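Researcher: Go.
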Amino acid sequence: MKRESLRRKRRLQHSLVSLLTILLFNCGGDVITNDNDQEIYRAPLELYMQYPLDDLGYYHVEYSGYNYTQVFARSEGTQRIFWSSSDSFSVVYNGIEFHTAIASYSTYTNSQTGETRQNVYINSNSVGDTLAVVGAISSDNYRWVQFIVE
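Model: Structure:
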């Protein structure tokens, strides 16, 4: 019981850190105004996975023993996509336990296709879990995908 409470606390802390990272490091390149500063343009952003999607909007990822799956993003031109997740995994190194998000850092979309991808860590302990990954261009232009590991 105490371990589960600690796990939830760490997950909440990680979620807050992820959100702050997106807010602090966005490059702001997705907002363009006209000469009158009236029209605001936000670059389109679509996230998807190459797995079956159910009626509730969840992708179904079959765990095959390979510890990564991919989330794809599509936008226009060259856009920086910041990746985050409140879901994490743990690694013990020299007796110290480290928690790391299943998706992090950023990638750039291809200037020709507008597409990019992010590797997402999963393992056998993820089977049966519903996980989420967020892709963001800025703090007010983001999307997410949710997937169930089977």
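Model: The longest strand covers residues 130-138.
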